[in-house]
Amino acid sequence: MVIPGGIVRLTVDCGLTTKKKKEAKKDNGIYISSENQSQVQNHSAEKIYAEESDEEFRQLINAKRQKINFPPACAKEQWEALDSKLILQLDKLIGKSTLEYKLTTSVTLSTFGAKQHQAKREPKKSRRQREMETLRKQKKNLRKQMKSATEEEKNGLQELWRGSLSLQKEQLEAHLRKTYSDPNREIPLSEPAGLVWPAAPGEEFNSKPPSLKEINAVVQKARAKSAPGPSGVPYLLYKRCPNVLKRLHKILRGAWTNLKISEQWMSADGVYIPKEQNSTEINQFRPISLLNVEGKIFFSVMASRLTKYLTENGYINTSVQKGGIPGVSGCLEHATMIWEAIQRAKSEKLNLDVIWLDLANAYGSVPHQMIQLALRMYHVPEDIQVMLDDYFSGFRMRFSTNSYTTDGINLEIGITMGCTISPILFVMAMEVILKAAEDSAGPANLGGGCYMPPLKAFMDDTTIICSKEDETRRMLEHLDVLMAWCRVKFKPKKSRSLSVRKGKIDATTIYTDTNGQSRTS
After folding, report:
1. How far is it, in rounded angstroms, from Cα 482 to Cα 460?
2. In the beta sheet, which residues pair with residue 357?
3. Which residues have CB under 8 Å from 276's CB, separation 6+?
4. For residue 321, which phi and psi values (nearest 5 degrees)?
5. pLDDT of residue 403
């Protein structure tokens, strides 16, 4: 079943009279109350379900959905037929309902049913696939050798296994509550000395409701095989059903105008991806969240506008921060420039300190108060601030492993990987810190009249580049104070430093210890 707000329910609805359909709707827990539904006021809506909504339907909504057996992307006639059928049903069910109902209602659809697992035809293998197959055979042979090897020989053979999380459900839920709970969530951040408030924008933020052109651009850019969220509805539906996309556009315009964020958009299914070989512990995995595509489309438009607003007004210095900015190959560019700085320092016999800093759980530890402060500092319209505050305040997620699914957890701190608005919000928060710290040191002198800014950043990965040791220490101390102020921490274990003195690598290591003190060894 396809729903505009992102719910999927597979039912059969054929040959019923109007009276029986009403009874069926009531029995299925989606009986609409006969009370008069007023227009949304104060960004909230009246109840649209009868009090006697049945428990079975609620359990179905919260359960893990099956994949819908949509037709192949190339089946043009089937998609056109589906588009027409959906429009008729959408017009009947949500044509005159409230905005809340439009965001969350469901449309019964029995055309395709649930997707069944089928044997896939073996595609023609590319050169890379053939090479990988050879490597897998070699790996299999190593396993055989391992079984037949003596105890002395086994030390020379190491099996490679995929990571598998070894935690029990209760342990993982306890970890999630600890990681994503924030007792200081409602406490605003103070404003430390040195915080740089940007000037008023020259180019105003585009606060108009999303246009069909913007929404269509997001949908067409998205991968057709992108994993769907809890609803099971993929981008492919909106790629192949233009009339359904137009209906979605109207609903999203209503949500934007009324500052309404659907609960469906604030629910995520998460999985853990191993970061290294033989991963078993939780700190060896990276969480990824799958969200409903309707919300991702909505926030993609907002993110695109926010990025344009920040770059046009010069609020993000792209010579320093290159993460999260479309069209900027920042990682490669930063690495090349830092390498060039080190080589110039060696050839010109100069002094240079380079420190690579890593934040502990960067995306999962940025406070929501920090995001709100950044939005205010960069003069983002209040309506956008309200929608984002509602979004993060009501965000819930659950995680699945091979054997179980956790209960829903409130996201009280941090952002989620998979959310389309989160990257640019994180960049904004980091930019507040970088702007406040950049005056702690002058540009690094690379000789020949060449200078480099003392800070480089790619999302949370920050690099300090200074040609004077006292400036290096001052910059490091200032950054450490700023990180403590916004309630995040550096990770000394994964941070590194390199010192060049008169063109030669020096044994001096400058770092920040766990107590926030700068040290030289």
Report:
1. 14
2. 462
3. 163, 284
4. -100, 115
5. 83
Residue 120, pLDDT > 70, answer: no
3-state secondary structure of 86: helix
Give the pLDDT mean for 162-178.
81
Cα separation of 102 and 109, whole Å?
Answer: 17
Is 320's pLDDT higher than 70?
yes
- Do the domain assignments include residue 428? yes
CA distance 293 to 296: 5
Structural domains in the chain (count): 1
Tell me how crowded residue 491 is: count the other CB atoms within 10 A of its CB: 13
Instruction: Assess contact for 337 and 444: CB atoms under 8 A.
Output: no
Report how far residue 411's alpha carbon sits from residue 367's, in angstroms, rounded to the nearest whole number: 10
> How far apart (Å, rounded) are the C-alpha atoms in residues 422 and 36?
38
The token pair that represents 467 in the structure block: 């040609």
Give the pLDDT band of residue 104 (cuts 50, 70, 90). low
Name every residue whose Cβ is closer than 8 Å to that of residue 337 and which is 6 or more positions away in sequence: 452, 456
CA distance linking residue 204 with residue 309, whole number of Å: 7
Question: Does the residue 446 lie in any domain?
Answer: yes
Q: What is the pLDDT of residue 107?
A: 44
In a domain, 59, yes or no: no
* More confident position, 243 or 57: 243
Q: Is the pLDDT of residue 102 over 80?
A: no
Per-residue confidence at 40, pLDDT binned at 50, 70, 90?
A: very low
Count of CB atoms situated within 10 Å of the CB of 428: 24
Domain interval for residue 515? 314-364+415-521
Is the confidence at residue 29, as pLDDT, over 80? no
C-alpha closest to that of 517 among 486, 468, 473, 482: 473
Alpha carbon of residue 466 to chain centroid = 33
Between strands 352-357 and 461-466, the pairing is antiparallel
Q: What confidence score (pLDDT) does residue 103 get?
A: 65
Using CB atoms within 10 Å of the CB of residue 93, give its burial: 0 to 12 exposed, 13 to 18 middle, 19+ buried: buried
Distance, in Å, from the CA atom of 398 to the CA atom of 63, rounded to the nearest integer, reads 11
End-to-end CA distance of the chain: 64
Tell me: the pLDDT tens digits for 388-424?
Answer: 999 999 999 998 887 888 998 899 998 888 899 999 9
Rounded-to-integer distance, Cα 453 and Cα 83, Å:
54
Minimum mean pLDDT range among 11-15, 377-381, 440-444:
11-15
Question: Whole-angstrom Cα distance, residue 491 to residue 472?
Answer: 18
Q: Is the pLDDT of residue 313 over 60?
A: yes
Can you give the CATH number for the domain in which 504 is found? 3.30.70
Residue/partner pairs of 198-205 with CB below 8 Å, 24 or more apart: 198/313, 198/315, 198/377, 198/378, 198/379, 200/379, 201/309, 201/313, 201/315, 201/378, 201/379, 202/312, 202/313, 203/309, 203/312, 203/313, 204/309, 205/305, 205/306, 205/309, 205/379, 205/380, 205/381, 205/384
User: Looking at this protein, which amino acid is placed at residue 38?
Assistant: S
Report how far residue 248's alpha carbon sits from residue 259's, in angstroms, rounded to the nearest whole number: 16
Say what the pTM is.
0.72
Please report where in the chains the tokens 């205010």 appear, as a residue: 376
Does 187 fall in a domain?
no
